[in-house]
């Protein structure tokens, strides 16, 4: 009897372990990216596809949902103690992927790293942060130099990602090669231009909602190849279906197309004062830039390349936002006016301009159409195609005359403007500087009143329209191709792929 009892007890003890083993996810999800990510360091990262990878690897203090509402993630709550003091309460029991605890000291370390690290792309987003005070194991107070209304919105993206201090200190400048965060999947391997592999982190605080053992991100620049991989089942999700491929996805019974309005834009940045490449007429004279704009038919561009699915725009803030400036609209094509402006500027035609273009086929196609359009006005537009991360490095160095680049967008207008057009902004590739723009952006950060902020952002849009450091072409729309085996995926307007609650039918 004793032996039988012992055996029965052993079975009873083993049963929960067996059940747990069966509950452990075993499937791999494969995601196609339109290009390779840049540095996998939340302080340094600038690319949209990098944000997609980060969403599986690095939780943030806050997130947004499909209704663009702020929701807690690593934080549980926040309160403004006064206009310059923000108290944040943190989630208990959270671990980094190296097993260390995510606590208030880690939050302080990460925020100050974002603010002070050499080359940080987050610096402009949290530039009003003066200090971080730890008032308890799971409580921090952010002390600001001035009231900053968009701060919570900034903390829903990379500025709110918390990294392991232990790993960051050990890796130093090589942290991007072995990133460690507090997200659902931990970094395993990266082969540039080929794949990034993440593995499920068993001690993730919300592990019950993570249903994949691995996630593999595969950069596939050619949209035709991405579609072929999606249709064959080689990948389960394509984060960007080009509009001309939408009918093929809709017609395939094994696929589904998920759409949502985007927050960002496609633009051409002109080098105004960023090094020796800012010497040509398009850099020195706003009339030449205006002539370039007037030579472009944005509506035709959208129809030819994007089947009319993308909306022409002339500003960084998209329709639907309370900060959209109705007074700033895309100008219709006017070749006569463009040629007149070039004559007034006294430039010799054709005006040669070289534009750096990421080597995405659809973006190259956009620029080929632009090339033909501006050629009729007196421009000789030369396309310099390059890998996306390489194009970012060139922009940082000022090694461009013009640069075609996409911005995925943020929920608050500040996130689409400050870094790009405020003097000294980390993503201000043109080196644009206008005191009136700076003042308006600073004043908009200092108030929470929506109409007041909207009026200030309208002034920014109007001044940008006059100076034209950035030529906005069209707003974005998220078009995601997904296998029908993928269940529970919810598209969010920022386009970022979130895997909580997502499963893969067998």
Structural features, described:
- This protein has 506 residues and is of the alpha+beta class.
- The chain has 2 domains: 28-187, Dipeptide-binding Protein, domain 1 (Alpha-Beta Complex), CATH 3.90.76; 262-478, Roll (Dipeptide-binding Protein, domain 3), CATH 3.10.105.
- Helix content is 33%, strand content 23%.
- It has a 10-stranded mixed β-sheet, sandwiched between helices. A 4-stranded antiparallel β-sheet has the order 4-5-7-6, with helices on one face.
- Helix 9 (286-294) runs antiparallel to helix 11 (335-345), helix 14 runs antiparallel to helix 15 (435-445) and helix 15 runs antiparallel to helix 16 (450-467).
- The radius of gyration is 24 Å and the shape is globular.
- The two termini are 44 Å apart.
What's the CATH architecture name of the largest domain? Answer: Roll
Strand tally is 18
Identify the strand order in the major beta sheet.
8-9-10-1-11-16-12-15-13-14
Mean pLDDT: 94
Instruction: Tell me the span between the first and last alpha carbons.
Output: 44 Å
Sheet bearing the most strands, described?
Answer: 10 strands, mixed
Secondary structure class reads alpha+beta
Q: What would you give as the CATH superfamily of the largest domain?
A: Dipeptide-binding Protein, Domain 3
Low-confidence residue ranges: 1-22
The total number of structural domains is 2
What is the approximate shape?
Answer: globular
Strand content: 15-25%
Rg over C-alpha atoms, rounded to the nearest angstrom: 24 Å
The CATH class of the largest domain is identified as: Alpha Beta
């Amino acid at each position: 009897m004793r032996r039988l009892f012992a055996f029965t007890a052993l079975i009873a003890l083993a049963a929960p372990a067996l059940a747990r083993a069966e509950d452990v996810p075993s499937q791999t999800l494969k995601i196609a990216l339109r290009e390779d990510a840049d540095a996998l360091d939340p302080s340094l990262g600038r690319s949209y596809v990098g944000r997609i990878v980060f969403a599986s690897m690095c939780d943030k203090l806050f997130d947004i949902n499909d209704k663009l509402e702020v929701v807690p993630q690593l934080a549980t709550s926040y309160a403004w103690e006064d206009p310059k003091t923000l108290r944040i309460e943190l989630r208990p029991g959270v671990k980094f992927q190296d097993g260390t605890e995510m606590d208030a000291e880690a939050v302080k370390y990460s925020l100050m790293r974002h603010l002070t690290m050499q080359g940080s792309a987050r610096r402009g987003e949290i530039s009003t942060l003066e200090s971080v005070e730890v008032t308890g194991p799971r409580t921090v107070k952010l002390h600001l130099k001035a009231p900053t209304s968009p701060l919570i919105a900034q903390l829903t993206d990379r500025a709110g990602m918390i990294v392991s201090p232990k790993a960051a200190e050990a890796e130093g400048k090589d942290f991007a090669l072995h990133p460690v965060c507090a997200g659902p999947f931990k970094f395993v391997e990266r082969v540039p231009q080929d794949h990034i592999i993440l593995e499920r982190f068993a001690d993730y605080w919300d592990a019950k909602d993570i249903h994949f053992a691995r996630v593999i991100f595969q950069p596939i620049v050619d949209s035709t190849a991405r579609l072929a991989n999606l249709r064959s089942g080689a990948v389960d999700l394509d984060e960007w279906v080009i509009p001309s491929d939408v009918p093929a996805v809709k017609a395939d019974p094994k696929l589904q197309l998920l759409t949502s309005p985007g927050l960002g834009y496609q633009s051409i940045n002109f080098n105004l004062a960023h090094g020796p490449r800012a010497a040509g007429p398009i850099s020195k004279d706003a009339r030449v830039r205006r002539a370039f704009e007037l030579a472009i038919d944005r509506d035709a561009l959208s129809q030819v390349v994007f089947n009319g699915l993308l909306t022409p725009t002339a500003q960084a803030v998209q329709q639907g936002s309370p900060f959209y400036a109705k007074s700033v609209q895309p100008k219709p094509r006017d070749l006569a006016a463009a040629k007149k402006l070039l004559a007034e500027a006294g430039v010799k035609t054709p005006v040669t301009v070289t534009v750096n273009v990421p080597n995405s086929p659809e973006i190259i196609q956009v620029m080929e159409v632009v090339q033909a359009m501006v050629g009729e006005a007196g421009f000789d537009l030369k396309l310099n195609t390059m890998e996306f991360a390489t194009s970012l490095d060139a922009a940082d160095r000022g090694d461009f005359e013009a640069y075609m680049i996409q911005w995925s967008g943020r929920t608050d207008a500040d996130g689409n403007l400050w870094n790009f057009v405020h003097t000294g902004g980390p993503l201000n590739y043109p080196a644009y500087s206008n005191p009136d723009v700076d003042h308006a952006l600073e004043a908009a950060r200092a108030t929470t009143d929506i109409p007041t902020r909207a009026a200030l952002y309208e002034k920014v849009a109007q001044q940008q329209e006059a100076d034209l450091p950035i030529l906005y072409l069209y707003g974005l729309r998220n078009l995601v191709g997904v296998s029908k085996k993928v269940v529970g995926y919810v598209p969010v307007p920022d386009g970022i792929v979130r895997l909580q609650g997502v499963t893969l039918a067998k």
